[in-house]
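BUG: 3D viewer hangs when loading the predicted structure for this chain

Environment: internal workstation, default settings.
Expected: structure renders.
Actual: progress bar stalls at 90%.

Input used:
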Amino acid sequence: MKTHITVALAGGLLSSPFASAAQNAAVPAADRISVFKAPLVCPAAPQIGCGSASKPILLDLEKQPGVAEAWLNRAGTIIAVLWKPDSNVEAQSHVAAELKEDRVTELEGDSRDQAVKDFLSGKGWYHAAEVDRLSEEEAGIIAARWIRRVQAKAALAKDKAAGLERAISESLRKDLTGETAGQDQNPNRLENVSRKYLDQEQLKLLSDAINKGVRALPNER
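Structure tokens produced before the viewer hung:
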């Protein structure tokens, strides 16, 4: 995904699936869980899942009859569906068929068993309402990458670089989590938040850095 300084980007804390209910309900049985291989790794930050891509899928899943909860693992490679106790085979088959349209396929055998075990461990899974944490992390990674590109060509004071990184990260976070959706967007907002920290020549360097895209280039992180 490429952007530039005048165009909006389009499109944390780990959660335990059972932490909030640990004292009130038993951990669900493995047969109430289905796990699916998902292509939801973040292109800009391949160490995490993509919050903006996964959120609509997870929210849609939780609207389906028979689905109690939907979760994404931190890596963005697996979706876990917790079925309601009264869920039937027909409802589950319907959900699996719909997920195939998003290139999400059900795991079976040893792969399924390992994924379910990981899910039941309660470590590093994000509920539909929490994947914005991943988007927040992605925004920080992209902002830091752009700042490093500028710093490779121009010296920036430490406090200015830190302030600029925070400002850009916050702007990107709003884009990635949908906070700016449906609003009158200022196409120059990245430039505007950067003017506090950069002179005109440095702004051009930042524009160049953004135009190189959000993904890491060779020898970047």
